[in-house]
Amino acid sequence: MDASVVEALQSPARKLLALFVANGLLTFAHTTLVTILGERIGGRLHAQAMDALLWHDLAFFDSAQSGSLAARVSTDIAEFQLTFKKLVTQGLKSATLTVGVAWQLVSLSPQLTFTLVSTMPVAYVGLAMYGRFLRVLRKESKEWEALATGLAAEAIANMRTVRALNAEDAELALYCEARAEQAASTNRFGLHMGAFRGLTNAAIGSMVLLVLYNGGRLVSRGDMSPGDLMAFMIATQSAQKALDALGSLMGQTVRARSAIARVLDIIGLSPAVPRAAGVQPESVKGHVRFMDVDFSYPSRPDAPVLQHFNLDVPAGQVVALVGPSGTGKSTVAALLERFYDPSAGEIWLDGLPLTHLDASWQRQQIGYIPQDPALFSTSIRENLRLARPAATDAEIEDACRLASAHDFISQFPEGYGTIVGERGALLSGGQRQRLSIARAILRNPRILILDEATSSLDAESERLVQAALDRLMRGRTVLVIAHRLSTVRNADRIVVMGAVPGHVVEHGSHDELMAKQGAYYKLYSQASGGGGGGGGDGGAGELA
Ligand SMILES: Nc1ncnc2c1ncn2[C@@H]1O[C@H](COP(=O)(O)OP(=O)(O)OP(=O)(O)O)[C@@H](O)[C@H]1O
């Protein structure tokens, strides 16, 4: 090539190269920034939603659909993030183009531009109303989606029960039914989404036609040159393309808005038991009183569980709640843990109503050993440390020795580092219960709630767990909820609950109640196989 031509080309080529490099750098910066911003917003939403869920009322989780909540929040935030990124990239581009073209239109013919713009509010109002309807449809479709996911999650989590009951087909039928409803409602949404986009296009097309009609009249009157009308029409076409892109983005924002609305609903949840509110007394003795307490579960407000329920557990005493199944024994424990608040009456701790106390502080004073203790799928050590995050390895080991758990833990190749599986599935019932006792020991609470703590254990495990419990109970206020009367004989007082909701049939020590030959005597006789004698060994029979 001729040197002069090369020289002439060098300068523009350099400028072009600089432009390309600048373009590349800007694209890189833009993409990276949008990703970082999207992730930052997503991260904050995830944390806020999780925070709101972790502190929300237990009644909320009693509802059937709560199983798939976490998954739903995740999908909703992901949908919002995706649309957010698109809005920032494509939306900005289309909006800039629309503004540029609008400027061009005004300079070509303000009159025609006015005609074009004056039709917009009508189209906007119509489409906005349709958009609202679309959000309702989207919400409905998402609710079916959540139900179907919840059913699947529940079946998978309870696989053993499903297999043992041969319930595979029944579960599949339920799942398919929910999926069919979800597909039908998503199709309905798709149909209206199609109509929405079709209407948007038709509205824009009609606007162009109106411009052409009015422009023709201007040209025929000599108020506008044919060339300007042509230029105006071309600019209108560009505007149509830009608006079309914006319309499609609007469609996506409909989905994103309903997704973010669901997440914001969760973030905005306000628990009935407030967090970090109320007093934190310096010391606690452990005197518990239930006074005239009425309670029904929020999910079943018409079924009273406790009515005018009274219970006095002096500090350091062991009180056992016994009675047939479903009489509200575990509910008493749930109220003492302040999982729920009573609908009437008051519960006091050391003379202070629970509603005046900081709920977290109050729960710290209680060690709760449930029938089937929950473990998380992490190591034994981390599971125990949940009870007291500051506990050292040596303190954890000491607690396990006291809970008769150290020996079985030491036999695992990984020792305290052993991962216990989802919900502790890799451990036996007795092992899980001993870990639960170790948790209570680490927590060193003033009050203990033992909810059927030694049920469903074999004799050897029961002996170990009972020995650990006896050590733990010394010097504390203890509420024992028991089916098996053998475990409550030594309680300072036994409270017998009856079939009338929350009704205390009788109370007293084992010997007093046996001498009375009333409800307890009857239960005891049935449980120990009809012997009924006051000096019986307590048997291991069950009440219900
Ligand atoms: N989360 C809940 N939501 C709605 N109702 C509930 C809930 N938990 C328990 N109930 C109902 O409250 C009543 C009392 O139940 P609770 O578990 O307190 O009885 P219980 O005496 O401890 O029974 P069991 O000895 O069988 O464990 C029952 O009728 C039960 O169906």
Describe the structure.
There is one protein chain. By secondary structure, this protein is α/β, with parallel strands linked by helices. 60% of the residues lie in helices and 10% in strands. The protein contains 17 helices and ten strands. It has helices at residues 3-55, 58-61, 69-108, 110-118, 120-157, 159-164, 168-221, 226-267, 329-336, 359-364, 380-385, 393-402, 406-411, 429-443, 459-473, 510-516, 519-527, and strands at 288-295, 306-313, 318-322, 344-349, 352-353, 366-369, 447-451, 477-481, 493-497, 504-508. It has a six-stranded mixed beta sheet with strand order 6-7-8-3-9-10. It has a four-stranded antiparallel beta sheet with strand order 2-1-4-5, with helices on one face. A hairpin with a 6-residue loop joins strand 9 (493-497) and strand 10. Helix 1 (3-55) packs parallel to helix 8, helix 14 (429-443) packs parallel to helix 15 and helix 16 (510-516) crosses helix 17 (519-527). The longest helix has 54 residues, at 168-221. The radius of gyration is 35 Å and the shape is elongated. Mean pLDDT is 83; it is low at 531-544. The protein binds adenosine-5'-triphosphate. Adenosine-5'-triphosphate (ATP) binds at residues 62, 297, 299-300, 305, 325-331, 483. It comes from Coemansia biformis. It is a multi-pass membrane protein.
